[in-house]
Every structure is written in C-alpha cells, then in structure tokens.
C-alpha cells in the first residue's frame, strides 16, 4: 500500500496507506488492550488450538527441500488465484518467504503467473525479460520502480525475477509477470496499441493518436511523468480521462480486435480515471481507493480467465485481505473484489511478524530503516508467536473449527499492517479470521536490501 498526500496523489495511491500518516502512537491505546490474569487460560487454549494446525517452516529463504510446504500446497487446491500478502513493503524475509512459496506453487502446483503490485507497463518489461532474457532486470527495476514503487526495487525481488527467468529457460511450463497497478503507463504501451491498430484497423490510428496526445506528451521517466500528470489541473485530467476512455471504446467497437491490445487500452483508461479524483474530498479519496483495488482484482481475474493458468497475486496484506483496515481510504480491498468475482477460487494468505525492521519512505521521500515490535500483549502477533514453532503457517479455516480459536480469530485486535511511509501507525485493529484464509508467521524480520545504484565510471 502506497502513500498519497491529500493534495498530490503521487503514485496513485500505490504502496502505502494515506491514513497511516498519523504519527506513531507509543501508548497503550495504540498497542491494544493488555489482557489480565483472567484471560491467561483462554490464551493458552487459543495457542494450543493454533498449534494443532500450525506447520513449521524449515526456512524463510527459497531453495532446498520443499517437504515442509506440502500442507501449504494442499491449502491452495481448488484456488485459481492465491493472494500472498506482505505485512510490510520493506522487510527482507517477507519477500523471501513469498519467493519460496511462489516457487513451490510453480513447481508443484502448476501456477503460471505472478501478478504484482506494480504498473502494467513495468511488469510488461520484466515479463519480456523472464520470457526471452532480453534486458537487464536491474536496469528495468531501477527505471520502472520509482516514486511510491521504489520500495520494490530490492535484491530479494531481483532474485525472484532471475529465478523465473531461469525456470522459463529450462522448463516447458512458462511463468509470466503481470502488473496489476495503473498509476503509470509507459510510452511502449501506447506504441503497442498504435502498432497493432495499424495492422488490424489502420483507419483508427489517427483518432487513437488524437485521443492519446496529452498522455503521450507527458515527460519521460516514471517519477517525472507521474509528477507532471499530478500537476495538471483537475479539469484537464478529466478531459484526458475522457479521451482515454474514447480510445478504448473505439478499439472495443472495431471489427477486428486483439484482446491483449484491448486490455492495454482499458488499463490506460483506468489509469487516466484514477487521476480524476479530487483527493481533498474524503468521499473522492475513498472512491479512488475503491477504484484502484477493484482494478487490480479485475486485471488478475482477466489474466486468469484469458490464459487459463493459476495466478499468484503478490501485494500488501492490506490489499489481498478480505477486510480493510482503512475503510475511509480503502473501503473495498482487492481480496474482497476477488472473492466477489471468483468466489472460493480465491485464497487469501497474509503474513505476520513478531518483531523486526522494515524500510519505508519518509516525508522527504527518502528511504529509511525503522523497527516494530516486539508485538504487544493483546495483539494478534503476540498470541501467534506463542506457538512453539519459530516460523510457521496455519490454515485459519481449519483452525477455526475449534470454537475457542474461532472466537479469537473473529475478534479484531491490533495487528502489524505496516505502511510504506514513516512516521506511521502500524497496528490497526484486524480480525484475522475475517481477513485471511491462512497466515504465514515469522518471528523476526530484517530490512529489505535495495538494489544498489550502478557505479558511474570516472
């Protein structure tokens, strides 16, 4: 989840949560209630119930035996889309454990796409790399993962993309990368649409060029382009959105249609619409969050229906969950829309941590390293960490068969849902049983490692 100021949408509400710009609260109200002695017996019963369904993780690092993940794979049977969340956008082990789970789902369960919380344009470049080997992934990440997306420019994700490339090089079962977010559209996306239209319906090209004139005139570079777009008057942004929608409708009515090009035009239309919300208006701010999460869900489902392959959706816990922790800003989550669209074919897997470090962007847009935890008594993580395994995963649906555990799961408690901005308030109340189907809990995490900038020769 991404930061957006009320005046400037930055990367269109990506990668941190606006409402978490409240300074961190260190008092008991922020940490949540501390149970008294009378709750000790109930707490022990909850921990015992969780332990019956918890499966220990051999490691949070990818590689090695996957025998400990057999039960996890079983949990995903019947799901065509699995959401893998992250409690923070800036913690190393949250990225690496997702990498490990993703590899297992690819190799053992036949998953064939990674749908990520980055723009369609950025993912298209990475997809070309993992399919063909074309391009340098470090350079692609440096050029595309800017502004609010910069927290994803990490060594952990680089290793994941390189593994996908190596898998595709040697396996007949190919894996693709999909961008679900619509904060930006690079120049290549417009060129693909115009080139295909020139082949299929050349008479449409002049009108398409006219509709895309303002968007294609935005300056180069992701951060620069988004800042320039944000700086345009709201009335002008609304005209641009009307043009983008007109371009999409023009292609949708064409006699010969390419579904992939039509999808790219639809995504540009959704992107342009996302810049039309007046975020000084609380109702409009909520509408912007609703539009973004619905769009991400619709892109993931479109890809799954179009290809027939199983998809892993990789995003913040606040997106892949069924319930929002920020109803005023994100009234409907991606996970809730996925459940609406495909029912039980969607499985939400959240991540949890007891303590550790994370990277986040400060008000000056620089990245810093910050700490959370140990989890306070009364929080979800405090109880999860009492399970005898240091790191583990648990099927909440199965654990909820125990009435004591079910009551605990269905009660909202302070939970680490850490935004990409600092200072923040990282422990909103959340009922795990309402938010996720399963949870991966890690005892301790460390800050993610940014991909180092290239050394300039002198």
Set down the secondary structure blueprint:
Layout lengths: L27 H4 L8 H14 E3 L13 H6 L5 E4 L7 H18 L1 E9 H13 L4 H8 L10 H16 L5 E6 L5 H14 L4 H7 L1 H4 L5 H10 L2 H19 L6 H16 L7 H26 L2 E5 L2 H4 L13 H9 L3 E16 L5 E6 L7 H5 L7 E4 H4 L3 H7 L3 E2 L14 E2 L1 H4 L2 E8 L13
Parallel strand pairs: 2-5, 2-6, 3-4, 3-5, 6-11
Antiparallel strand pairs: 1-8, 6-7, 8-11, 9-10
Helix pairs in contact: 4-7, 5-6, 5-7, 8-13, 9-12, 12-13, 14-16
Descriptive labels:
458 residues; alpha/beta; two-stranded antiparallel ribbon; 45% helix; EreA/ChaN-like  fold; nine-stranded mixed sheet
Structural features, described:
The protein is an alpha/beta fold and 458 residues long. It has a single domain, classed as EreA/ChaN-like  fold. It has 20 helices and eleven strands. Strands 1, 2, 3, 4, 5, 6, 7, 8 and 11 form a nine-stranded mixed β-sheet that branches. Helix 12 runs antiparallel to helix 13. The chain starts with 27 loop residues before the first helix and ends in a 13-residue tail after the last strand. Mean pLDDT is 91; it is low at 2-38.
